[in-house]
Amino acid sequence: MDRLTSMAVFVKAVDLGSFAAAAEALGLSGPMVGKHVRSLEDRLGVQLINRTTRRHSLTEFGHVYYERCRVVLAEAQAADALASDRRSEPRGKLRVTMPVHLGRHCVTPVLLELARKYPALELDLSFNDRIIDLAEDGFDLSIRTGPLGDRAGLIGRRVARQPMIVCASPSYLESNGHPETP
Questions:
Q1: Average pLDDT value for residue range 152-177
Q2: Are 13 and 7 in contact (CB under 8 A)?
Q3: pLDDT of residue 163
Q4: Within 13 Å, how many C-alpha atoms sit on residue 104's CB side?
Q5: Which of 21, 22, 30, 151 meets the CB 3.0–4.6 Å disulfide criterion with 12?
Q6: How confident is the model at residue 152 (pLDDT cuts 50, 70, 90)?
Q7: Mean pLDDT of 134-163
Q8: How far apart are CA 129 and CA 103, in angstroms?
Q9: How far apart are the first and last CA of the chain?
Q10: How far from the centroid of its chain's Cα atoms is residue 79's Cα?
Q11: Is 150 helix (H, G, I), strand (E, B) or coil?
């Protein structure tokens, strides 16, 4: 019998006060609960529970062993929780499309940091200035600048503001003059 399972059955029997209550709570038969406890006692060579026809009570060693089993089971549960936390990390392929200039200079550094933090995450980046159909082209996320207009099926959320300025080279200004409006 698995020692950790037997410890869990033993602790449940002590917590609930009877083999029958532990059997019901764990979905086992009463005799199976007894077998788990006997398995521990045989392995340890020490009696854990005094049994009479009317009641069960812990032996002196049974009290000490019960407390240690609770610690062991709590630690095993905490160790399992670590794996659960690990599974909750982002993983798989994330397909992102974004404008060329904004993507290369602003978005890519953020996404690369995300990829470093979560090594199980695979990035598939597309630099394209046209607005695409996410579902049709198989993208998970699209980062865009400017208004989206009325596009069915798109949900847009502002992530940041990007200030823009109009620039011209000295030679352009020399040949075309200074513009009065954009």
A1: 82
A2: no
A3: 78
A4: 5
A5: 22
A6: low
A7: 77
A8: 10
A9: 81
A10: 14
A11: coil
Average pLDDT score over the chain: 87
Measure the CA–CA gap between 113 and 34, rounded to whole angstroms: 55
The whole-number pLDDT of residue 127 equals 92
Q: What pTM was computed for the model?
A: 0.49
115 burial (CB, 10 Å; 0-12 / 13-18 / 19+) is middle
Amino acid letter, residue 131: I
- The domains located in the chain, with CATH, are 3-86 (1.10.10.10), 92-162 (3.40.190.10)
Distance CA(82)–CA(119), nearest Å, equals 17
- Radius of gyration of the chain from its Cα atoms, rounded to whole angstroms: 33
Q: Which of 41, 68, 43, 73 is nearest to 56 (CA)?
A: 41
**Would you state the pLDDT for residue 46?**
94
Pairing of strands 56-58, 121-127: unpaired
pLDDT at residue 105 tops 90: no
What's the DSSP call for residue 143? Answer: -
